[in-house]
């Protein structure tokens, strides 16, 4: 004999009294069996009680799908007690993914037309919770009629339902435009708040609605002014602020209406100044209103004084004891630093103090803002502060801090010596965390400053003698010792304390680097080449260097072994050429930080002539992967390989300094083309057509970033019609630094044997401002000179 069904209260007590999960499942399974039996019997009097118990079981996470049809029966019932539970069950058990939800559309329509306020409220709540696009289209007219009902209770729920409908079906905007103008005259704050939210949704989704509601800006300004100047109200005031929820929503709407519209912006300027100066800041409600005011001021055509006031409000937020408010202030100031740099600069001391915050998110934001505030006038002071922070900052911030200091020093260095000293301090403090291009940049900087060669090599030698664990520092030091080792022995530098160094000490230090377990393979390569170059810089006996070279001829590291064999051959067979082969690197007088890398790229480009462009099957694989272009396949030809000269091969093997001759004689210059710009990230294309191979087009894609945040994980992929041949070379990096830092370059080689009009499709993927971005676009406006 089955036990009788429990009441809802008894079921709750029994479930809570279960000592194990098995006991709980047993109680629920028994009661679900009773509920199923009751549904099968069709007991109309107790159906709502059984469904109420089933809803409780559903909220505990147990399956309750068998109650969906019972919800429909209760909604269709004329009794209010049944409708109440039925609508609640529909909101919990039904959604757009189930076809059963469409069966209640007619019942909702009937209830909306009944005129009974509690029933209308239930129907509106259900529609705004789980109404699908089809239901919204069918019931939009009924909801529009209820917006002007005399009952505030029904009007408020109808407004919220209209918001849901607009989000689901934006094309319903025209239905709700006329009632909104009348609802703005409401004195009921709940209805007014819902109306402002509805207008905001309409303006965000419909340009026509945006133009329509710009006419009501004076009315919105008056509503907000009344809220600001009204006294304390027990019904609406929160912490001494009159209805902050309504104020915030009005400010958001004003921000949308004033954006890119000067007339609307002028109308609200005085009001925004009044809100900014009269709002209480001792409680969180007032801070919320002030923050929305700041966002509105910054997003519209506001006066310069008003923008300074907004920045000062954010500066006060930095002094708040609440971490969340300080984080919001730092984030907002970072957004404003580009447009209002001088105003944000006034709060630089406070921002620098935030670097010492124990909270990791705050210190990261403070670091980003501090780096954005560096300019030519404060670079010395800010760099000193950042270097102090670099010594004590958490490990996860060291890479960002070190890279930021190096970029700032590169852009705003007052002198080359200061620039070199700054990079050396960063490499000494956090050498393992710097960017990959830091070594090449410092080598280029030192190579181009002839007057600082002696100073630099002595500083680097001293730093290397103290610590050989920082690999980038060791690499630069080894390079400088190899190039300017003779200056190290002369002792002619007057800018630092006298340093007496013997040849044996220098060689012993480089051998120590070679033998250290901390040295990377690349570092050993730098030290090994430096030893070889010292054979021409030092005037003593080279037997020690010869012994080291011969020893590493059997090294397990293939790269190091290859160098040793080549250097040993240079000693034995070409000793008469050794001084010329190992001469000093020529001075680099070009502007730009990537000269060393460009020299390497030019060598690689010279050798790449011997590599044929991939044939059609490889190109087809790339096109199939991107699925960007689907032109007809045509027979493809590839470039005939060139034989590299012996001198070029020897220079490449020894990694020797050289100025390779121009790779090609080019046709007349082709104008550059900007093909992409978004949030400060730009992609420009430059073109070269060699006169020797007119069918070949060399495109250099250059990515620059003028925003306040680095662009990371940058990948550029390209596709061309199958009548062309495309070869993508490796990019110079995958991070585009903020504030106009070092650009990323990538070479595209396109063979166009038929001289057909060129179409190029690009896909960019990157991370910016913490968001992953993917852009696919076609470039079909290339200059005629690229293909004719």
Describe the structure.
With 788 residues, the chain is of the alpha+beta class. The longest helix has 21 residues, at 21-41. The relative contact order is 0.03.
Draw up the topology in text.
Elements: H1 8-17, H2 21-41, H3 47-59, H4 68-76, H5 80-93, H6 105-112, H7 117-130, H8 133-146, H9 152-168, H10 173-183, H11 189-205, H12 207-213, H13 217-229, E1 237-238, E2 241-242, H14 244-258, H15 262-278, H16 284-299, H17 304-317, H18 323-336, H19 341-345, H20 348-353, H21 360-372, H22 379-392, H23 395-412, H24 416-430, H25 438-448, H26 453-466, H27 471-490, H28 503-515, H29 521-537, H30 543-551, H31 558-572, H32 578-581, H33 595-607, H34 616-626, H35 646-654, E3 673-678, E4 681-688, E5 696-705, E6 712-719, E7 725-728, E8 744-751, E9 760-768, E10 771-779
Antiparallel strand pairs: 1-2, 3-4, 4-5, 5-8, 6-9, 7-8, 9-10
The number of helical elements comes to 35
Task: Characterize the main sheet.
Answer: 5 strands, antiparallel
Report the portion of residues in β strands.
Answer: 5-15%
Give the distance, in angstroms, between the N- and C-terminal Cα atoms.
Answer: 94 Å
Strand order of the largest sheet: 3-4-5-8-7
**Backbone CA Rg:** 36 Å
Helix content: 55-70%
Structural class: alpha+beta
Q: Please count the beta strands (DSSP E, at least 2 residues each).
A: 10
Note the overall shape. elongated
The averaged pLDDT comes out at 83
Low-confidence stretches: 590-664
């Amino acid at each position: 004999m089955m036990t009788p069904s429990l009441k809802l209260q008894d079921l709750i007590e029994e479930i809570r009294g279960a000592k194990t999960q098995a006991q709980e499942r047993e109680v629920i399974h028994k009661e679900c069996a009773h509920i199923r039996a009751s549904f099968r019997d069709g007991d109309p009097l107790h159906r709502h009680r059984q469904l109420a118990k089933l809803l409780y079981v559903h909220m505990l996470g147990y399956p309750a799908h068998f109650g969906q049809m019972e919800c429909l029966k209760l909604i269709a019932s004329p009794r209010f007690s049944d409708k109440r539970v039925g609508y609640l069950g529909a909101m919990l058990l039904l959604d757009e993914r189930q076809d059963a939800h469409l069966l209640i559309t007619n019942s909702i329509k009937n209830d909306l037309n009944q005129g009974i306020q509690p029933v209308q409220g239930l129907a509106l709540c259900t529609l705004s919770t789980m109404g699908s696009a089809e239901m919204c289209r069918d019931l939009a007219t009924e909801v529009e009629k209820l917006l002007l009902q005399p009952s505030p209770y029904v009007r408020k729920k109808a407004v919220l339902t209209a918001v849901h409908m607009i989000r689901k079906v934006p094309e319903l905007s025209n239905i709700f435009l006329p009632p909104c103008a009348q609802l703005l005259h409401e004195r009921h704050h709940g209805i007014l708040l819902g109306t402002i939210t509805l207008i905001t949704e309409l303006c965000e989704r419909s340009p026509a609605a945006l133009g329509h509601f710009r006419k009501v800006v004076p009315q919105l300004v008056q509503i907000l002014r009344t809220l600001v100047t009204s006294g304390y109200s027990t019904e609406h005031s929160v912490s001494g602020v009159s209805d902050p929820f309504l104020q915030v929503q009005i400010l958001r709407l004003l921000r949308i209406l004033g954006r890119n519209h000067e007339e609307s912006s002028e109308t609200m300027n005085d009001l925004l100044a009044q809100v900014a100066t009269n709002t209480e800041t001792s409680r969180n409600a007032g801070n919320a209103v002030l923050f929305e005011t700041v966002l509105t001021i910054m997003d519209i055509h506001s006066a310069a004084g008003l923008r300074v006031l907004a920045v000062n409000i954010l500066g006060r937020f930095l002094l708040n004891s609440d971490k969340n408010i300080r984080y919001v202030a730092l984030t907002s100031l970072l957004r404003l630093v580009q447009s209002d740099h001088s105003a944000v600069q006034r709060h630089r001391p406070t921002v620098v103090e935030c670097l010492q915050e124990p909270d990791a998110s705050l210190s990261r934001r403070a670091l980003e803002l501090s780096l954005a505030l560096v300019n030519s006038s404060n670079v010395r002071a800010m760099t000193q502060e950042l270097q102090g922070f670099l010594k004590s900052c958490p490990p996860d911030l060291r890479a960002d801090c070190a890279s930021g200091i190096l970029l700032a020093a590169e852009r705003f260095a007052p002198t080359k010596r200061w620039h070199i000293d700054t990079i050396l301090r960063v490499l000494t403090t956090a050498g393992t965390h710097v960017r990959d291009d830091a070594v090449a940049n410092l080598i280029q900087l030192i190579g181009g400053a002839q007057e600082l060669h002696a100073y630099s090599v002595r500083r680097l030698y001293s730093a290397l003698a103290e610590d050989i664990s920082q690999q980038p520092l060791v690499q630069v030091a080894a390079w400088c010792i190899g190039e300017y080792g003779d200056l190290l022995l002369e002792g002619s530098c007057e800018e630092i304390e006298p340093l007496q160094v013997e040849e044996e000490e220098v060689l012993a230090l480089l051998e120590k680097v070679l033998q250290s377990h901390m040295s990377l393979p690349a570092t050993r390569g730098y030290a090994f080449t430096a030893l070889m170059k010292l054979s021409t810089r030092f005037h003593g006996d080279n037997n020690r260097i010869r012994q080291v070279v011969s020893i590493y001829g059997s090294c397990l590291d293939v790269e190091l072994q290859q160098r040793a064999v080549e250097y040993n051959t240079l000693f034995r067979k070409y000793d008469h050429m050794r001084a010329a082969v190992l001469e000093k690197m020529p001075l680099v007088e070009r502007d730009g930080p990537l000269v060393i890398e460009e020299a390497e790229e030019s060598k690689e480009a010279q050798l790449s002539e011997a590599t044929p462009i991939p044939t059609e099957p490889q190109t087809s694989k790339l096109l199939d992967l991107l699925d960007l272009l689907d032109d007809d396949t045509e027979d493809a030809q590839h470039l005939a390989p060139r034989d590299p000269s012996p001198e070029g091969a020897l220079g490449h093997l020894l990694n020797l300094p050289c100025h390779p001759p121009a790779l090609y004689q080019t046709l007349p210059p082709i104008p550059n083309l900007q093909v992409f710009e978004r949030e400060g990230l730009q992609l420009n294309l430059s073109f070269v057509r060699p006169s020797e191979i007119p069918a070949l087009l060399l495109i250099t894609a250059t990515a620059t970033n003028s925003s306040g945040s680095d662009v990371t994980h940058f990948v550029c992929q390209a596709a061309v019609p199958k009548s062309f041949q495309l070869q993508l070379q490796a990019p110079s990096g995958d991070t585009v630094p903020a504030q106009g830092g070092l650009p990323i370059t990538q070479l595209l080689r396109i063979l166009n044997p038929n001289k057909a009009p060129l179409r190029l499709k690009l896909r960019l993927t990157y991370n910016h401002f913490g968001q992953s971005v993917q852009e696919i676009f076609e470039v079909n406006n290339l200059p005629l000179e690229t293909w004719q």
